[in-house]
Amino acid sequence: MTRRGKHWRGGLGTPDMMVLFRTANEWRYALYFSDPGGVADGRLPHPGPGGTPDEAQTAARAKAQEIAGRPLTISWRPDTAPAWWTGTVTTTPPERPGPASTA
């Protein structure tokens, strides 16, 4: 049996939504992007399936920041399905270097 690794589809872009859910064996996530769009999904190695939602949300945020390459804020709310959470992702775009000053 082979285990699938992380899976990223599309050109990614700006993250705007994250879904987090617990299975019998692990926590899983999907991070959705706009402009141009795409999705990154996978499993969280920590916490295990017995971990709390707060622990999983913290780990999911760290994974989202790793994928996006910048700091993110995620506002979590319970989903309609048990053991599922949906997060709204907000981010500050990376600063662009301004023109060099000639003093």
Question: Brief description of this entry?
Answer:
With about 100 residues, the protein is α+β, with helices and mostly antiparallel strands. The chain is built from one helix and four strands, in the order ββαββ. A four-stranded antiparallel sheet has the order 2-1-4-3, with helices on one face.
Explain what you see:
- With 103 residues, the chain is of the alpha+beta class.
- The chain has one domain.
- Strands 2-1-4-3 form a four-stranded antiparallel β-sheet, with helices on one face.
- A hairpin with a 4-residue loop joins strand 1 and strand 2.
- The longest helix has 16 residues.
End-to-end Cα distance: 64 Å
| Proportion of strand residues | over 45%
Biggest sheet layout: 4 strands, antiparallel
Strand order of the largest sheet: 2-1-4-3
Helix content: 10-25%
- Return the string of H and E elements: EEHEE
- Average of the residue pLDDT scores: 83
Question: What's the structural domain tally?
Answer: 1
Helix run count = 1
Oligomeric state, counting identical vs distinct chains: single chain
Which radius of gyration do the C-alpha atoms yield? 16 Å
Overall 3D form: globular
Number of strands: 4
Enumerate the spans where pLDDT stays under 50 for 5 or more consecutive residues: 1-5
Helix/strand class: alpha+beta
